[in-house]
């Protein structure tokens, strides 16, 4: 298969983990070529813009981007470059797998769940946020639409069907937030009826948090609105060992951007010790999206293999290796298996 993707190396540790990730991916004969474009501080330095048109054009042309973390400078005109990318490409589904890898600081074994978070509406809209003149009363509004709810829930069920997963848990607070969460739940029930082979569970968000901590293995796919999904997906990242292992995809109808959940880690940038796994796992999501799930599975197996043996992994996973030795070990494992 011949396909070009946009690649944004990113800021801070971004170039280090991107180079390691692409070295591993290049072992797989994916047929992928890369169109390297800039965003964030790297772009600001090179061409005076945080999100150059050439970068937007590349993502629009290739429909798929692999992206390193971006530093959003304070006062740069954007509240967040990531939010801006989500808006411009209407990336409505934030898909965050949380899978335990034995040998890490994960609190449980056998977690294999995916949070599907609505990414464009809910409580995170900028409209309707007001503060009274005396500064004592604040208002914000929550927007939930049938269209927004339907497309995210449908995405979650289709993902379950594609991956042979058995259960989707719809997380809500419809008992209290009767209109907004109520509409989301109502639409979710309608969509679930189209997927009779997949079990649909409903769970209130506060109980979900407790259940995740007590018995996370019961979950398969979770689908929920923006604010709940933001919180729950970080909780899940914590359950499986933290930021160095948490990937995420932002998916729309016209484009999809795959990235690590963590940021540019300025405290360790340039030291060559950043863990490349989160970005590599995001690249695995990308391979699945491009119809190469078999290759994604090979990389995940290599990660499990190398992490279990520990010696060549990065310090955050308890190893004495660095980014380059981690990538080398992954490549050795791919060649051996
Ligand atoms: P951060 O995620 O960059 O770092 C938090 C802590 O985790 C640091 O101690 C860091 O060293 C460690 N860490 C993160 N990734 C690691 C890795 N791969 N291997 C080993 N250790 C790792 O969060 P922080 O410090 O709040 O943000 C730094 C910058 O990143 C900010 O400018 C922020 O805006 C940006 N950011 C960008 C994101 C993106 O582009 N998706 C997401 C989050 C933050
Ligand atoms: Mg978040």
Give the names of the bound compounds.
1,4-dihydronicotinamide adenine dinucleotide, magnesium ion
Instruction: Examine the secondary-structure arrangement and name the CATH architecture of the largest domain.
Output: 3-Layer(aba) Sandwich
**How would a textbook summarize the main sheet?**
10 strands, mixed
Secondary-structure element string: EHEHHEHEEEEHEHEHEHEEHHH
CATH superfamily of the largest domain: Isopropylmalate Dehydrogenase
Number of helices: 11
Mean pLDDT: 94
CATH class of the largest domain: Alpha Beta
The count of DSSP E runs of length 2 or more, i.e. the number of strands, is: 12
What does this entry look like structurally?
This protein is an alpha/beta fold. The chain has two domains: 187 residues, Isopropylmalate Dehydrogenase (3-Layer(aba) Sandwich), CATH 3.40.718.10; 133 residues, Isopropylmalate Dehydrogenase (3-Layer(aba) Sandwich). The chain has eleven helices and twelve strands. A hairpin with a 4-residue loop joins strand 11 and strand 12. The chain is globular. The model has no long low-confidence stretch (mean pLDDT 94). It binds 1,4-dihydronicotinamide adenine dinucleotide (NAI) and magnesium ion. 1,4-dihydronicotinamide adenine dinucleotide binds next to loops. The site of magnesium ion (MG) has 2 residues, from helix 8. Belongs to the isocitrate and isopropylmalate dehydrogenases family. InterPro entries: IsoCit/isopropylmalate_DH_CS, IsoPropMal-DH-like_dom.
């Amino acid at each position: 298969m011949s396909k070009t993707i946009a690649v944004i190396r990113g800021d801070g540790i971004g170039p280090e983990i991107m180079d390691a990730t692409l070295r591993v991916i290049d072992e797989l004969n994916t047929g992928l070529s890369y169109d390297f474009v800039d965003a964030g501080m790297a772009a600001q330095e090179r061409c005076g813009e945080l999100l150059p048109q050439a970068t937007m054009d590349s993502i629009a042309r290739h429909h798929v981007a692999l992206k390193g973390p971006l530093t959003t400078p304070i006062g740069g005109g954007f509240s967040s470059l990531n939010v801006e990318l989500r808006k411009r490409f209407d990336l409505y589904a934030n898909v965050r797998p949380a899978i335990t890898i034995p040998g890490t600081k994960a609190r449980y074994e056998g977690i294999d769940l995916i949070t599907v978070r609505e990414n464009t509406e809910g409580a995170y809209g900028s409209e309707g946020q007001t503060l009274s003149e005396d500064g004592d009363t604040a208002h914000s509004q929550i927007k939930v639409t049938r269209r927004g709810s339907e497309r995210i829930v449908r995405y979650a069920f289709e993902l379950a069907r594609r991956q042979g997963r058995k259960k989707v848990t719809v997380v809500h607070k419809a008992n209290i937030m009767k209109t907004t969460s109520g509409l989301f739940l109502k639409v979710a029930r309608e969509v679930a009826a189209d997927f009779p082979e997949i079990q649909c569970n409903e769970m209130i968000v506060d109980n979900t948090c407790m259940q995740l901590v007590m018995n996370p293995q019961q979950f398969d796919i979770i689908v929920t609105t923006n604010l709940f999904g933001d919180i729950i997906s970080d909780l899940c990242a914590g359950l499986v060992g933290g930021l160095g292992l948490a990937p995420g995809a932002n998916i729309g109808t016209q484009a999809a951007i795959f990235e690590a959940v963590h940021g540019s880690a300025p405290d360790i940038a340039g030291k060559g010790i950043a863990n490349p796994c989160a970005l590599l796992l995001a690249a695995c999501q990308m391979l699945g999206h491009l119809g190469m799930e078999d290759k994604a599975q090979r990389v995940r197996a290599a990660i499990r293999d190398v992490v279990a043996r520990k010696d060549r992994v990065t310090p955050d996973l308890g190893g004495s290796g660095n980014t380059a030795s981690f990538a080398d070990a992954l490549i050795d494992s791919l060649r051996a298996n």
